[in-house]
Amino acid sequence: MILNAGTLVTMNDEREVREEVHVVVEDGEIVDVADGFASGEDVVDARSEVVIPGLVNCHTHMYALPIRGAPLEASPRSFYEALVDIWWEVDEAFTMADARLSALGSCKEMLEGGVTAFCDNYSGPNTLPGGLDAVADGVAQTPIRGLIAFETTARNSRDEAMAGLDENRRFIDEEEGEYDRVTGHYCLHTLFTNPEEVVRECVDRATADDRPIQLHLEEGLVDVHRSIEEYGERPVHALESMGFFDADVIAAHCVHATDEEIEILAENDVAVAHNPYSNTNNAVGIANVEKMQDEDVTIGIGDDGWDPDMFETMRTAVGIHKLKQNDPSGFDMATALEWATIGSAAVMGMDDRIGSIETGKRGDFVTLDLGPNPVLRESAPYYVVSAASRADVTRTIVDGDVVYERGEGVHAVDGEDMAAVGAASADLWDRI
């Protein structure tokens, strides 16, 4: 495949933006990025468009899709109430069909919005064992890249937590090889829903399997308060004492992490999945990404299952960090695009393969029609973040294959599939 690009935002180490170039992909890999436009039958024509790397969503929950529009009676006044009154009711009602169809519907949405890779954490305790197989089947119906895990929790019992750990290991050992673009990892829901013995067991398994662990860390103050009550210290200190950072860790949220805790995360090479829209929606606060940047923490961006438009998630990040600084120039807008591409790829340990457009990387691209205004090389990343939306995505390309085209949809998903997704959501609403 050859892709002609009017403006190419590479996100390489130099954050280079090039004009009037073509990208050559062979066997899914970028082999050349050259000046000038190419011609031929296999050329994808984006000469009047902006091309960016495939977006990477480094923290999501695909099982959140069925709750959109649900007639919920709960009116939580805190993050913890939202967990108890909504999410824990939802995940316990999930079936195998819900797991598969929510994954399928979410992957379709992500591809339509230019997301070519994601990291998901699934919670459905009554679908074990086998829940991750259902998730993987939904993902694999589409050509997206997925890193999936079962969200381990001991909120009801230690046995439930061990079943979650067993599910992750079972998928990695027995099922992962059946999928081309789906891989497994480990996930602990939070420190406050998992005792020390479960934390240590998760570390042992993840390090033995050479897989990362994702953890919701200090998303709400309940995490901080419970840690102090149980361990006499804040969560990062407690986790460090447990040897948690011996594993490769993806820490989601980190809203309430102190400067000292952020320094500990940096010292242990912990990557952070920032979820700006979710944090504002749950009213938990704003993560101190400025301190994280000062400490060279690897930062990516996720939607936490809330917003199918990653461009809106990027803009939320820009808005909240400017507001936090009370300064309209207090946050570099292009940073949000970095987080959504090469940053999130690095969080997921995949930056050697995806996240930028350069030789040796996979051929994952998004083509954008940004309208009539000229696109200038020096301002192109800012234009993308400030003005683009999923409606502007004309194509999503994975491994050099066009897998979504505006007006045609995601090639592997049809109307019957989406009707099944909607019907499953309605059935779930009746059960909860």
From TrEMBL:
Gene Ontology molecular function terms on file: hydrolase activity
Keywords: Hydrolase
SUPFAM superfamilies tied to this protein: Composite domain of metallo-dependent hydrolases, Metallo-dependent hydrolases
Claim: DNA damage is one of the keywords in the record: no
Keyword Hydrolase: yes
Superkingdom of the organism of origin: Archaea
Cleaved signal peptide residues: none
Pfam families listed in its UniProt record: Amidohydro_1
Domain Amidohydrolase-related residue range list: 50-403
Name of this chain's protein: Amidohydrolase family protein
Source organism (scientific name): Halosolutus amylolyticus
